[in-house]
Design brief:
Length: 906
Amino acid sequence: MKYFKTSFALFILFLSLGYQASAQQDTTILKNILDKSKMIAEQYPAEKVYLHFDKPYYSVADTLFFKAYLTFDQNLPSALSKIVYVDVLNSQDSLVKSLKLPVNNSVAFGSLELDMTNFKQGNYYVRAYTQWMYNSSSDYYFHKTIPIGEAIDKKVITHFNYKSSQSDKGQTIDAQIQYKNLDKIAMAGKPVSWSVTSNYEVIGRGRGVTDQNGVLKISIPAKKNQVITKANLVTDLKINDTDNASNTFVMKPKTGANDIQFFPEGGELIEGVPTQMAFKAVNPNGLGIDATGIVTDESGNQLATFNSTHLGMGSFYLNTEKGRTYKAAITFKDGTKKVVELPKSSTSGITLQAVNTSPDVVNFKIVANDAYFQANQGKGLYIVAQNGGRVYYAAQSKLQTQVTAAKIPAEKFPSGIIQLTLFSSTGDPISERMIFILHQNAMKLSMKSDLPSYKVRQKVKMTISAKDSTQNLAGDFSLSVVDQQKVPVDENTETTIVSSLLLTSDLQGFVERPNYYFIKTDAKKRAELDILMLTQGYRRFSYKDILANRFPQTTYLPEQGINVSGILRDRTGMPVKKGALRLTGPGRSVSAETLTTNSGIFNFKNLVFEDGLELLLNAKYSANGSNLMIMLDEQAFPEVSGNPDVATEVMNIDSTLSTYLDNSKKQYSNLRTLKEVQITGATVKKPSHSDHPALSGLSSVPDHQIDGERFKDCNDLLTCLKTMALGLTFDIDKFYVNRDYQQGNRTPVQIFINGAPVDAINLSSVMPGEVESVEIFLRDQLGITFKNYNANGILVINTKKAPKSNMSLSDLKKMLPENNTLKFIPRGYTKVREFYAPKYTTQTSSYTGNDLRTTIYWNPKIQTTEAGDTVVEFYNADGKGTYRAVIEGLDKNGNPGRFIYRYTVK
């Protein structure tokens, strides 16, 4: 179902509010609203990225496969950006990997090897975005939590839980850990030492012994004025006389009690107008908690009762009266109670109300109370319904009656969130209501196998069909088939292309179990989805802003390819106009030429090369070419922040992913990380801060240290350190100690390169491959270094020592870079690994190993056409039971679709 192509979709309807609308009625105000909406849609289109992964979770040593879908207006293929970025961050909010992928036909393919060097057990979150999306908040990026377990070098299996409590003395955290061996037998009587670190400081440590059930209990006592919001608990369990097991547990305690918020339909309570009052009750972790309540007035008269129907959400009706106040007494599921004052009523007002329980029609009404009607009778009213700035319904008329009802066919709208806004006679937005439209027949996506059941390693022939109500549809899809016994999943909590593109990408805040609303959607789920619309905010734009000409700022333009840009200057610093530059790569893998502008600016556009390629930029063909400087532009990179969906993190990966990890243990039984081997003999001292007298007053052990190996994929040292320097914050052109910066301290960190004090900008001149280590000091126990450099924090860059050489001065000069050339390693496209699955030509194949694959088949390049169905073939593994096939994607009209098919392997 497609609602527009290039024209501005608009349906102007005139409501009969007790009179016949005149054709000559002034439409200036409505035209202004529509023009501003159109400007948002056409000049500031919002791109969306969705990633379809082959699995919901992984193990270290797995390869993660995904497909990126890039859309904009009505989820049509985006014509804006040709590059998508995918970042993987760990629970410490540090960037682990960043991928840069080319977009072709609005899709991109990616893979990531979860190597044993960079990944360990924990919760990771993936974010995906384009450079055009830099102009908006990172809330608009695609986000997904992905738990990764450890099965190769695991020594013990743990189960961890904790609770945080608040008293007059402060916050106390009580934790409990159960240890089991790899045979899942409790490890009783084992000595354990532990320490807790928060804000880079040790706030508690101790020792204990596990009880008969392998349980260790830890209590972190309260400290005055200390509130722990994030901490790491590190334990070392002594397995035997020669072997220990170290485990790290991330704690993100939430202080406070259960909470509840009330949301009047239309935005406010109005005296004399019966109003639907939605509510949402949440626990301190931000998850919904069931609640019941009673509404009373100031005299104690009971006016309404309510109870939540889904994830702490529900609604009731309330008719407020003049001069009365109201409160709600709430009882949460855990037995705690709370009394909340309800929002105050407006003495004069008008509201927009909707009933959206039918899939075919949207019923709405405009209701004004007596005071508003008397003051505004005969004045104009305007109603606009839009999605992403595209207006699908608009009406204007005059206020002639207090209540007016109307219907809009649902077919007028696309699937997704529609924002209904009521405007006053002066064009001010006075009431808003969000509704959700879901067209079940827009695209029917389905799959079917040639047999209902199969044998292990037998070929499967799968037929894929994409249709609307009458014909086949062209579309782009991705298919994942997994062994469901090894990869169990809760479908309600899944992030899907439907829930992401139609729902969560347009809502403010965290949405719990988003896919729940799209699994066998019925009247009950439509009603629950409507309550969600009342309790979440629409975040794309505000009419108050755009009508006041406060439009989004566009600092960054969409990328059409890899660009290498900068400025060419002479030795006096003056820009060189019409300067000739040549860009080349090894073996002429890259070759391009350009001339600078009158301002000395150059830009090599739409380059194609893999990441890690060293390029040469040469200006020697310009006039006075031997005396020129080439300066590259710094590449933008979004700030690293915490996981916005932290509530979806898995606390106990060992137990939650036990089935999967048990299989991974067998699958990777031949992999073992090398144990440390100590070799006696001369020790080669590595460069460190202690080599320099100016830094000798610092501790021998830095607070954080980054090994130079971490920078192997880095193109610019300063850019990388912005995300990798633990405990530090970068603002404008300086680093600051994070905890002090948050408290208002603006004393910067002093940076040293091999003992020499420098500014942050100098870091870009250091080749990342030449870095031996980076040392970070958040404290100076003697205070000497901080005082000498008026600093708060020290960041030390140690470069690798050059080997001694008998090289002559002339030989050395030959190695120095020429003034008119520049070698650099820009960020190129990430190489993508192809998914491999064995082909068994016969059931008695010569392949004798166990086929323990969890992802049986991954195909991100499935396309359907109007001509007919599409067929794919693949082979089963050795696992028996139910296999789960999931296909997702978009048709040519921007309709997202998802279908799950299961078959049996015996």
